[in-house]
Amino acid sequence: MTEIHNLNGYGMEDPLFEQIRQVAAKYFGGDTPVPLPTEEGKRPRCLSDGEKINWQDLTLPSTPGQGMEVRPLGESELKGLHYEEVDTLNSAEIRKDFPVLDQKVNGHDLVWLDNGATTQKPVQVIDKISHYYKTYNSNIHRGAHTLAARATDAYEEAREKVRSFINAATSEEIIFVRGTTEGINLVAQTYGRQYLTPGDEVIVSTLDHHANIVPWQQVCHEKGCTLKAIPVDKNGDLVLSEYERLITPRTRFVSVGHVNNTFGTVNDVARIIDIAHQHNIPVLIDGAQSIALLSMFSSSELTSLSSADTRFTDRTALVSSMEGRRS
């Protein structure tokens, strides 16, 4: 039987792949779909990372059900293939939460992709802010009157919600800042300036956003320290064996991102933290890209981040921005 080796990046779970298998089954005869090649005794596999696919490798008998002569799948047959995307996120309902998206630009529904610069706010956040200004606008932790008490209670309730969301031990561990960049700078300019001395070392990674690199470059330059970076392999993953080798008796701090903002690489922060803590080194995790997705991570990762704060009560800090998130 001729094998289908390559499908242009699609794995077996993709609807397009299933349709191609059915077309191949028609040509080979019978009702059995053609699987990807597998090792004997193992279930059919999906394409592995790094497998390159060429449409010309998809070959079929020149006559359906006859012999083993093969030929490339013709352009007309490729064009005849169809697959339907399934919206598992129910994006239409999600869009309703964002009033700013209820408009057209150049005759098309607005699609907002500039979240790296500004995130649009859901109606729940807009309504809550509006309600605050309409009913109990006041300074927190400063006044003894009724509106101040209401504002303070609401502020602390929000802190408790964040604590629960990121699995922190207590609400006192939650410090609100204007954004992730400010949070990282705050740690670098306070903790870093106080505890780093000439000859000390700080470790970041080559996958980090510049907001987690520049603050440490500046404080290392000021204090006469060395800034090291964990390298990445050809797949875009951090080489944690090299990370372990980077640690020396002069390593004083580790600061890495949880999820890369460009490639979406999810770093093994549980292991990164564990390795650093074995040497009694404090860790900062840049959670800007992962804070909204914490429910997707394993319990071990959440346990590793359970002391998410900027006080290093367990030598680990999770710095992120909750701006615009639904409470």
Secondary structure elements and their pairing?
Layout: H1 15-28, E1 59-63, E2 66-72, H2 75-79, H3 91-96, E3 104-105, E4 108-109, H4 123-135, H5 146-166, H6 180-195, E5 201-205, H7 214-223, E6 226-230, H8 240-246, E7 251-257, H9 269-278, E8 283-286, H10 299-304, E9 316-319
Parallel strand pairs: 5-6, 5-7, 7-8, 8-9
Antiparallel strand pairs: 1-2, 3-4
Helix pairs in contact: 6-7
Short description:
With 327 residues, the protein is α/β, with parallel strands linked by helices. It contains 10 helices and 9 strands.
Question: What does this molecule look like?
Answer:
There is one protein chain. The chain is built from ten helices and nine strands. With 327 residues, it is of the alpha/beta class. The protein has three domains: 65 residues, no CATH class; 33 residues, no CATH class; 153 residues, Type I PLP-dependent aspartate aminotransferase-like (Major domain) (Aspartate Aminotransferase, domain 2). The strands form three sheets. Strands 6-5-7-8-9 form a five-stranded parallel beta sheet, sandwiched between helices. A two-stranded antiparallel ribbon has the order 1-2. Strand 3 and strand 4 form a beta hairpin. The N terminus and C terminus are likely disordered.
